[in-house]
Amino acid sequence: MEFPRTFHPDPAAEPYRANPASTHRVKFHARVDFTNGGYVEAKDFLLEVEGDSISPERLAEMIVSAMNLLRAGPVTIAAMQVVRRGEHQDG
Question: Per residue in 63-75, pLDDT tens?
Answer without folding.
Answer: 999 999 989 999 9
